[in-house]
C-alpha cells in the first residue's frame, strides 16, 4: 500500500465512478455536486492531518522558478500572502517578479529545508507547494512528520511523477483509461511485451511513454515495432526510467478538467476546456470546450473530483482527457495524464474566470474557502507563444496593443528558444471564431510572424 493511501476514500471514489456513472452513454446520472463542498466525511490520512489556517502572516513556499510560480505572484500580492520561491537560477522566470526567491536545486534537501525555515526575522513558511512534480518525496514525508504542511502531499504527488504509478492507481479507482501495460525493464522481455501489445492493437500502432521526466511530448512516441524505441530500451537498461505502452486513442479532441481541493474537503471545478496540441505541446485552449454536451462536461468534472479525492490531492489538479465517439456516436472521455499544480490548460482562468487557477491554488493549499470558478465571458481562448523570431518579445507590443487592445498578454521573461513556451495571450468575447482568430494572431505577433493587417482596430471597433 502506498504511504498515506486511504482505502476508505479510494473506495468511495471508485464507487462513484464505477457504480454511479459507468459511461456517458448511460446519460447524465451524476448525483455528485461538481462544485461546492462535498458532503462526504473526509477521513484524516496518516500524512496530512487536518489543520486550520493559522493566524498571523501567511507565507506560501513554492519549489520551482518557472512561469507557474511567476503567475502565482499577482494573486499572492492581492491576497496579502507572502510568496517565497525556490528558483534554479537567479534569472529564472519567477525570480524576476518575486522578491523572496532563494536559489537552489529542487532536488536539494538543504535548499528545500531552508525555504520553509524561519530566518532573518521572517517567519517559517505556512505551507510548502510546487510548480512542478520533480521533488524528493522522502524529504517531503519527513517535513510533514516535523509539522510543515506539504500540499499536495508526497503520497499524491507520486501519481503525477510516475505515469506507471498513475495508471495503476487510476485503474484501481475505476477511472476510464486507455488500455495500457508497463513494459518489463529487461530489454528482451520489454521488447516481447511491446510486440504482444502491438499485436493486439488496432492499426498496429501504440504509444510508448517514459514513466518519469517527460513533458511537452518529450517522452511520448507513437510506435509500430520495438525498434522504434530501441534507444529508450537502451536507456532503461542503463538505469533510466521504466517504459509503459498505451493504445493509440483515436480521440476526436483533447479536453482538460481542472479542479481545486482544499484539505478540509471543499472541491470546485472550472468549465471543461478543449486543449489543442501541436507537436505534443499545448498551443491553444478554448474555454469552454465548444459543443461539449452537458453530460460529458459533468462526467469530466466528476472524474476530476474523484481523482482529487481518490488520490487525496490538495491544491489545483489538472486532468488531461481524450474525447472519443462510441459506436453509437456518443462521446466518451478517457484520462490521459494528471498534473498536480496549476496547468497550461488553466491559464485562461487568469482573465476568463472569476477566480484564476493561481489564486485558487494559493487558497487551496492554505485551506482557505475556494473562489467562484464561473466563466466571466461566453468564450475565452488562450494562445501560447511557442518560440519567437524576435530579439525581444516586447518588440511586438506596440503593434499588438494597437491591433488587439482587448488582448490580455502574459510574458514569462524566459530566454527565446525554438518551440519554448514564452508566454500566452487570452482573449474573451461572444463570438468564438473571432475570439480565437484574435488570440492566435496576437500570439503570432509575439512569435514575430507576419500577420495580415485585416484585424485593425477600426474593423473590430
Ligand atoms: N495513448 C495516447 N493515444 C493518442 N495520443 C496520445 C496518447 N498519449 C499521449 N498522446 C498525445 O501526446 C501528447 C503528450 O502526451 P502526454 O502523456 O500528455 O505527455 P506530456 O507529459 O509530454 O504532456 C498528448 O497530449 C496527446 O496529444
Ligand atoms: Mg500532457
Ions, cofactors and other bound molecules: adenosine-5'-diphosphate, magnesium ion
Q: Quick one: CATH superfamily of the largest domain?
A: ATP-grasp fold, B domain
Number of separate structural domains? 3
Shape: globular
Protein described:
This protein is of the alpha+beta class and 461 residues long. The protein has three domains: 7-160, 3-Layer(aba) Sandwich (Rossmann fold), CATH 3.40.50.20; 179-247, ATP-grasp fold, A domain (Dna Ligase, domain 1); 253-460, 2-Layer Sandwich (D-amino Acid Aminotransferase, Chain A, domain 1). The protein has 14 helices and 17 strands. The chain has helices at residues 7-20, 67-79, 109-116, 137-145, 154-161, 163-173, 187-199, 230-237, 294-310, 349-352, 357-365, 397-403, 432-447, 457-460, and strands at 35-36, 59-63, 82-86, 127-130, 180-183, 206-210, 220-223, 243-247, 253-261, 267-269, 273-278, 281-287, 315-325, 331-339, 379-386, 408-411, 421-429. Strands 1, 9, 10, 11, 12, 13, 14, 15, 16 and 17 form a ten-stranded antiparallel β-sheet that branches. A four-stranded antiparallel β-sheet has the order 5-8-6-7, with helices on both faces. Helix 5 packs across helix 6. The longest helix has 17 residues, at 294-310. Residues 1-49 and 456-461 have low confidence and may be disordered. It binds adenosine-5'-diphosphate (ADP) and magnesium ion. Adenosine-5'-diphosphate (ADP) is lined by residues 178, 207, 209, 214-217, 219-220, 246, 248-249, 254, 277, 280, 320, 336-337.
